[in-house]
Amino acid sequence: MTKETEKFEPRIVGFLCNWCSYAGADLAGTSKLKIPSSLTPIRVMCSSRIDPVLVTTAFLHGADGVLIAGCHPGDCHYDKGNYYARRRFAVLKKVIEGLGLESDRLRLSWVSASEGQRFAEVINEFNEKIKKMGPNPIKVKTSL
Amino acid sequence: MTKTLKINKNVEQGILELLRFLLDGGKVSGVFTLKRINKEGSVAYSLVTRSDELEDAVPLFPLMPVNAGKLLSRFSLRGKSNKPVAAVVKPCELRAFIELVKREQGSLENIFFISSTCGGVYPIEMAVDGAVENNLSKYWEAVKKGEIPAQIRPACRGCVEFKPYTADMTVDLVGSSDIDKRCMILLNTKNGEELAQDMKGDFLEKELDKKILDKFQNKREAERKKLFDEIEEKMKGLDGFIDIFGKCLGCHGCSKVCPICYCKLCEFESPDSEYKPSNYESDLKKRGGLKVPPGTVYFQIGRLDHIAISCVGCGACEDVCPVDIPISIIFKKVGESVQKLFDYIPGRDVKEEIPLLTFEKDELSEVED
Prior knowledge:
The structure holds 2 protein chains of 2 kinds.
Chain A: H1 2-7, E1 12-17, H2 21-30, E2 39-44, H3 52-60, E3 65-70, H4 81-98, E4 106-110, H5 116-133
Parallel strand pairs in A: 1-2, 1-3, 3-4
Chain B: E1 2-7, H1 11-24, E2 30-36, E3 43-48, H2 68-76, E4 85-88, H3 91-102, E5 111-116, H4 125-128, H5 131-145, H6 154-157, E6 169-171, E7 183-187, H7 190-196, E8 202-206, H8 210-234, H9 237-245, H10 253-257, H11 277-287, H12 296-307, H13 316-320, H14 327-341
Parallel strand pairs in B: 2-4, 4-5, 5-6
Antiparallel strand pairs in B: 1-7, 1-8, 2-3, 6-7
C-alpha cells in the first residue's frame, strides 16, 4: 500500500478561464516553469460558466482534485463573472462538506494572464496537497 | 400591534366563514384551499368560486398533498391571475411560492395569502388509510398546547420557520388554547385589513403570543438539533454517504414534488446525462463495478447543489421517497448551512435577491486559495 501511495500521481481537473488563468497557464509553459503532468486543463470562457454540477461530475468520476481558476476579482473580462463564480463555489464547497465528503479536493484560485509564476505555484501546491491526501476514494466505489 | 379579527367560532368554522364572506361579498373571485376528496382523509388543493362548494373545504387540514407553492406557480405561470384569489397555505408553501416568483415562475399579483402558525403536517402515506383522520383530535390537542404532534413529517418536527413571513392574514394556531371556541386572524397587511373589513366579528389589536411561540420554537430547535445530529452521525465519510444515498432508485420523485426544482428540462433527465457505452467502459475500467442505473448519487448531489440556496424544508421530497432516504433532513441541514453564508432565508421577502444572482465585491475570501 505504501508503495502505491508513493507512486500515486494525482489526476487534477482544472477549469481555467480563457482570458486570465488559461493564458497564465500558457505563460507558465512558455516560461518553462515546472508544471506537474497531473493537470488536465479545460478551457472555459469564464469561471462563472462552471456549473457546480460540472465540478461534481469530475469529482464523482474520480478526479483527485478539481481546480477552478479565473481572473482576479475586479479584473473579469466580463466585468463580474468571477464574483458569481465565487458564490457558486462557496455553495458547492458547503454542499460537499455537508455531505461528509472531502471538500478540500476542490480549489478556487485567481490567476491573471501575466501570472505564469503564480499559476505554477498554485498547481504545484495543490498537487502536493492532493498527493498527501491520497487518491480520491470515490474512484474505487462501485455503488455510486 | 396588529389589527386582528376575532370570530366567535372554532377556528376551522371561523376560517370557512371568512372564506365564504370573501366569496359572497365579491372581495375575491376564488379561494384556493384544501378540500376533502373522500371520507378516508384524502384531501387535495382546489380552486373554489362558489361558496357552497366550501362545504368540504378543510383549509387547516394537517396535510400537504403537494407543496401549494408549486401549484400556485402553475396557476400564475402563464400570466397573473385576472381576478383576486385568496389562498390558504402553510408558511413553507408561501415561502416556496415566493422563491418561485423570484425565479419568474409565477406572479403574486391578485393572490392574497391566508396562512397560520403551523403545527406541521402528516406524511402523505397516512392520508391513504385514514390514519390522519384518526389522529386529527390528537393533532389539535398538541397544537393547542404548543407541543409537537406525534408522527408528523420529520421535516416539520424540526421546522423553526413555523410563522409566515408575508401572509396578508395569519391565523393564530400554535399554543392557542381556545381555538375550539374562537378564531383569531391577524390582519398583517393593508390588503388583509381591507379584505376582512365589514366581516362579522370583533376587531381588536393583538400580537401573536411571543412567550408561547418562543417556547414552541425551543422545542422545535431541540428536535431539529436531534435530527441533524443523527444524520451527521450516520453520514460520516464516503461510506456513510453511500450507506444513505446508495439505495436511491433514480426515480426523481423528490425533484418532481420539490417546489424549488422547477426546471421543465432537467439536466439530470436530459440525454446528456445518459451513459454512452464509452462512459460505461471508462467507469468500469476504473472501478471494476458500477451501480445500474448509474448517476443516482450524482443526481442527488447535483440537485442539492442547485436548490440548497432556496430549500424551504417542506419535506415533500422525503414523503415520496420509495426507499426512505432521509432526504428532507439532509437537504434542510445542508440548505441551512448554505443559506447562512449569505444570511438568507428563502421566501422571507420577495424583494430579497437570490444570493447566487448577486454578489458583494469583498467577501468569501475564505474559499479562495
